[in-house]
Design a protein that fits this description.
disordered N terminus, single chain, two-stranded antiparallel sheet, about 350 residues, about 35% helix, alpha/beta
C-alpha cells in the first residue's frame, strides 16, 4: 500500500524515503493520493475502485467537484468487498465558497459526509479564501468571515466529524492571519504546484511554520511539459515516465501530490514514485522549467499569476452576475442534482 507506518515533518519527507507526512494534528497523510477534480461522473467510481484495489489509501475530494456521491458509492463497495477499511484510508474534502456562516459550514460538511457515506473526514479544507453569499457566485457576503467559518470547523473537530482541518489556495498573508487567531492551527495548505509554477516561497513558508503542503495539478495538466527536453532526459536517466518525474519532484520537496486520472494503468503508475529519487543536479535542472504559469481558470483566485488577471476579471464578473442572483440561486454542492438551481424567492430546504 502507498503509505508507510512511519511519518515525518513535511519538509523532510523525501529525505528518508518516507511515504507520508505528519500533520500538526498528529495525523499521517500519505504523500500520494488520487485526485478527483474534473473526474467525470460515470468514470470517477471506476477510478476510485481501481485506486483502492491498487493500494491507494488517500483520496482527495471536494463538494464543488460534483462527484462525491459517486466516490461514496465506490467507497461503500470497497468496504463491503473488504478491499479497504475505513480506518486505513485518508479522505479529504473541501468546503465551498458560499458556506462560511456557521450553520452553512455544518450543513456543507454533513452533506459531504452523506454523499461520501462516511462518519468522519480525515481532512476538511476551506476551498478558497473568499466569503460569498449563500446560493451565489462571486457575490461577497459582508456578514461572513473566514475566522467565523474556522471557529465552526474547530467545533466540528471537537465533535469528531473531522480529524484535521486546513485551507486551500491561501496566500502567506491570509494563512498567517488565520494562524494568529485560530485555536486549532491549520494542518495543511493545498495549492497549485508543479515545475511550471513551483510556488517555492509559499511552500517553504508553510513548511517552516508547521503547515504541510499538498499540490493540486501536480502534472500541470500534462501536455507540453511531458515533452520538455529536461523532463524527458531525467525520466530516461531513471527509467521512469515524465509524469513520474514531475510527481517525484514535489515529493522530493516534501509536498503531497494528488494526481488525477481515470485510467487504471496511469493511476498505478502515478503512485509508483518511491522506487527512485531525484538528485541535486536533477532538482537544479527542474528549476529551469519555472514559467510562472498557472493551470487554474478560477476568476476568484488571488494567488500567483492568476491574481494579476483577476484584479480586473473578478469585479467585472461579479457585477455581471449580480442581477442573475436577484432571480435565481445555485447550490454548487448539489451540482448535477435536484436542487442545484432554484428561484431566489423560493423556499429551499437545502439553502435555508
Amino acid at each position: 500500500r502507498y503509505v508507510s507506518e512511519r511519518s515525518v515533518a513535511p519538509s523532510s519527507a523525501a529525505a528518508s524515503g518516507e511515504t507520508s507526512v505528519r500533520l500538526s494534528s498528529s495525523a499521517a497523510q500519505p504523500m500520494v493520493g488520487l485526485g478527483t477534480w474534473q473526474a467525470p461522473k460515470g468514470q470517477v467510481r471506476e477510478a476510485v475502485k481501481a485506486a483502492l484495489e491498487g493500494g491507494y489509501v488517500h483520496l482527495d475530494c471536494a463538494a464543488a467537484y460534483a462527484n462525491e456521491e459517486e466516490v461514496g458509492e465506490a467507497l461503500a463497495d470497497a468496504f463491503a468487498r473488504g478491499v479497504a477499511r475505513r480506518d486505513d484510508l485518508f479522505i479529504t474534502s473541501k468546503l465551498w465558497n458560499d458556506r462560511r456562516r456557521p450553520a452553512d459550514v455544518r450543513a456543507g460538511l454533513l452533506q459531504t459526509l452523506k454523499d461520501l457515506r462516511l462518519e468522519y473526514l480525515d481532512l476538511y479544507l476551506i476551498h478558497w479564501p473568499v466569503c460569498w453569499r449563500r446560493g451565489t457566485l462571486l457575490q461577497d457576503d459582508a456578514d461572513a468571515s473566514i475566522l467565523e467559518c474556522w471557529r465552526e470547523l474547530e467545533r466540528c473537530v471537537d465533535e469528531g466529524l473531522i480529524r484535521s482541518i486546513g485551507v486551500s489556495n491561501f496566500s502567506e498573508a491570509k494563512l498567517e492571519e488565520l494562524i494568529r487567531d485560530a485555536r486549532i492551527k491549520p494542518a495543511l495548505n493545498q495549492i497549485e504546484s508543479h515545475p511550471l509554477l513551483p510556488n517555492t516561497e509559499l511552500v517553504r513558508w508553510c513548511q517552516s511554520n508547521g503547515v504541510a503542503v499538498t499540490a493540486y495539478s501536480p502534472l500541470a495538466q500534462g501536455g507540453k511539459v511531458f515533452a520538455d527536453e529536461t523532463v524527458v532526459s531525467i525520466a530516461a536517466k531513471h527509467g521512469v515516465t515524465p509524469a513520474q518525474v514531475l510527481l517525484r519532484w514535489n515529493v522530493e520537496r516534501g509536498v503531497v501530490v494528488i494526481p488525477k486520472s481515470v485510467t487504471p494503468a496511469r493511476i498505478a503508475q502515478n503512485a509508483d514514485v518511491f522506487g527512485f529519487g531525484l538528485d541535486a543536479d536533477d532538482m537544479r535542472r527542474m528549476e529551469s522549467l519555472d514559467a510562472d504559469t498557472t493551470t487554474t481558470p478560477s476568476p476568484w483566485s488571488d494567488v500567483g499569476p492568476a491574481a494579476r488577471r483577476n484584479r480586473i476579471l473578478r469585479p467585472l464578473l461579479s457585477a455581471v452576475l449580480r442581477p442573475f442572483f436577484w432571480i435565481v440561486r445555485v447550490d454548487v454542492q448539489r451540482m448535477g442534482r435536484r436542487g442545484f438551481i432554484s428561484w431566489a424567492w423560493s423556499r429551499d430546504e437545502n439553502l435555508d
